[in-house]
Amino acid sequence: MKKASISTLKAHLSRYLDAVKSGEEIIVTDRGRPVARLSALDPGAEVGGRIARLVREGRVRAPVSEQAVSEGLAGRLATPLAADPDGVSLKALLDERSTGR
Length: 101
Description:
This protein has a domain at 1-65: YefM-like domain (YefM-like fold, 3-Layer(aba) Sandwich). The protein is 50% helix and 15% strand. It has 5 helices and 3 strands. A hairpin with a 2-residue loop joins strand 2 and strand 3. The longest helix has 13 residues, at 66-78.
């Protein structure tokens, strides 16, 4: 089992990833203290399967389609802003900035 500091790992990431691919395990250290372990993924492990399990368990919400997101954003952008014809909000903001609050 190899050890590597964060800075060394950053500088030589490709080399350490090659070692992990070949079956080695890397312990990542921060100022000499172990903080993480790099190891190869189980070939049968599937990221999508894990996410689906978390959705079923109610621990995460499934992502919505990009279309639903963009339609929701368009609806929010179409909402008119509150009227402030006298500029009270702007005056309050400028006063606050001038006093350093």
